[in-house]
Amino acid sequence: MSSVAEQLNSVLQKTARLIELCNALQEENELLKQENASVKLALNAAKSKNSDLDEKMRVLKLAKSIEGTSEKTLDIKQKINDFVREIDKCVVLLKK
Predict the structure, then answer these.
(1) What are phi and psi of 75, to 5 degrees?
(2) Residue 78: CB partners within 8 Å, gap ≥ 6?
(3) 1: pLDDT strictly greater than 60
(4) What does the alpha-carbon distance between residue 86 and residue 4 come to, in Å, rounded to a whole number?
């Protein structure tokens, strides 16, 4: 009879240990979920900062390409004016 009692006691001890392990794993899982959420926030912030920096770099490249000698600037302005005149002509033709 004591053998059955010992087996029952062993089963109860193992069950208690499994419950402890399950609780510990659930706590670890919650911590990992919180960490995952914070890492996702950091990633989104980094992506946002990266896109902002990409936009700044694009603007700087554009500014550098426009920057230059005054002759180059005058050429660019002249080309823009020519394009505007051409567009105006096209608009007038479309209205007819």
Answers:
(1) -60, -45
(2) none
(3) no
(4) 101
Q: What is the DSSP letter of 96?
A: -
Tell me the Cα Rg of the chain: 36
* Interacting residues of 66 by C-beta distance below 8 A, sequence separation 6+: 73, 76
Average pLDDT over residues 8-19: 95
Is residue 62 scored above 70 in pLDDT?
A: yes
Joined together, the tokens standing for residue 54 give 């990409």
d(CA 62, CA 79): 16
* Residue 57 confidence (pLDDT): 92
pTM over 0.70: no
Q: What one-character-per-residue DSSP string does 33-81 give?
A: HHHHHHHHHHHHHHHHHHHHHHHHHHHHHHHHHH-S-HHHHHHHHHHHH
Cα–Cα distance, 30 to 3 (Å, whole number): 40
